[in-house]
């Protein structure tokens, strides 16, 4: 007898598919507190990255994402067990710390790790936690997350561009980590509006699978790129040629529309950062290019008019002295030829000069 | 084809399936032809040469009409069905050309279509040329060979980077545009490889008197059938026409089976293949990878990426076609599980292999058998070499594709000699059942790795780089 095939109803199949998808989609609403970014193949199948994932260049197998958990989970710091003889130093800062145009070994962290340095009787191991966005708030957010990794010392490199109050919340990584930022504003009683429109507010719909697909795809892509990071050791595109940092400058002395920096800089964020790690912290005013070209009597470089930067140095110096911070003002340490494509990006030789100063500071602080 | 185009194709197919329930098959043919014509324009990507995203699809359609005229009996174009087909093709092309005047932004073409007077001149010149060539073809038997040569010449230009570049420079000079920015990729004529192979198949069948009588709508629908436009499979006219003429009712079962196949294809292409593509071997990675182990991983990733990508597209095409009552031939039959290279080639891009077998290998073998003094194994050697070289060159006329074709020829030849050797020296070996599993697994692994190593030439653009990859793969560098 011919076997009768069970009849499948198209409408029923479609209805079930829609219902299942809807269930799956809205199940994500209840998974919002699960830090999916912490699930990582790095430090497990692939070695951890020596700096945070950043950039969107196909040639570098790298990407920018906003999930701080995923960023930390992919970092070598998250997978390195601290040994009793390790003196753990975390480097916080912008693209100059991250190492734009520099291979991992050429960055400040790379150079500090290249030569055996001891501090407090232990071997110094530096971790690059720089991220190419200039903002104190971003630094505070990273530092706050990094303190769980048992640092012995934090070195925080910064520059005036990170200070203006008006730009603390507008970088994408800050704006898209609104919950963390609100928490920091509350905990440290920062003079910022936790409901600032720059901070992305996630509605219920934004927490569903459909809305979070980009974020989830980025986390997956980061894992896949782990294979290529392992295979090539490359995490940045190094062009054969690039435009050098600007030497001839515009005759402008404007800085963020300000006439004075008094009350315009986010010193409260700096205070929060200096106190959050609860370990010795060295604040560094990072080296910058001092132009000798056209209009260099008005401006130091592309970023800063002379009046603003001079006032900033004075204010920062007073602030650090008043609080007895370990403060290094290395603004003019590096000669003009050791800058690459920006007034704060150093060549490997420039990084070596900075590394020498930092090494000395670490050892001095230990004594 | 991106997700948008696939989604639109599925919807269009469903619509055709629903609209033509219980209606004569000719309506389905007309609708499929109209969708095919629109797809030829819509799928064509933007090209740096001005209006070429309109001209290239228009030339594709013109070549189709020309081929139908020369392969059909004279005067048949006056039949109502053929006139309807001509009106659909010409009408839609004209509406698309006119759309520059009533649409604020281009909808079907990637950029705004050219001035209508240019289009009119194009149509008039083409009409005269088609009618003249059609007339000539009924009086001169070499006309069809001439059209085949024309199609091959276009393919050679498109697939030879140097010739493509020169052609782009030529057109840029004509249009008074800077030639410095010309590249070999300027002439991206979407689907032309498949269109040309289908047209050559029809023209050769006509020459061999094997071509069934087809109406213009049937013929043009076969060539521009929208699910197969971008990545095949290459169907045969007589089989396709049979399906097209059958009365078809889109049942729930057919919809589900088609949908299932599309879903499998989407998963293969957009999940598996696209993820593997991130770590698959390419020029950049070949130069950057530091260790032998990782080089093998990248090679395996490429081998599976190309399979899932291509077979995924085939699944999508087969699934969509099913929704309109066309049962397309399969292109893949688990090729990486085959125990020898001959079986691999019988299960990889099967419709292309069959095309080459029908229109090159078999005629070539018949011809070479005329030379009685050539030993049989030399005939096989020459026939396989020529076929594999042509299959390689179909993908692009570069040294690396020549090496890829030669690599597979070498494999097929060695396999052939080895099989003969084993059969004559160790006849019991193939009949020993206890050895079969080991021979199968050994053959499978050997075949897969031989094919994977061949992909080195396919994936990379430069023979020196390919050689370096081989060295790295065997830890010799």
Overall strand count of chain B: 0
CATH superfamily of chain A: SGNH hydrolase
Query: What's the rounded overall pLDDT mean of chain A?
Result: 92
* Uncertain runs of chain A: none
Contiguous low-pLDDT stretches of chain B (5 residues minimum) are none
Largest sheet of chain B: none
Provide an overview of this structure.
The N and C termini of chain A lie far apart (94 Å). In chain A, a hairpin with a 2-residue loop joins strand 2 (118-119) and strand 3. A 6-stranded mixed β-sheet of chain A has the order 2-3-1-4-5-6, sandwiched between helices. Chain A has one domain: 3-Layer(aba) Sandwich (Rossmann fold). Chain A has 367 residues and is of the alpha/beta class. Chain A has 11 helices and 6 strands. Chain B folds into 2 domains: 23-245, no CATH class; 335-473, no CATH class. The longest helix of chain B has 32 residues, at 292-323. Chain B is mainly alpha-helical and 477 residues long. The chains are: A alpha/beta (367), B mainly alpha (477). The A-B interface holds A 7-10, 13, 59, 61, 220-221, 224-225, 227-228, 230-234 and B 252-253, 255-256, 275, 278-279, 284-285, 288-291, 294, 297-298.
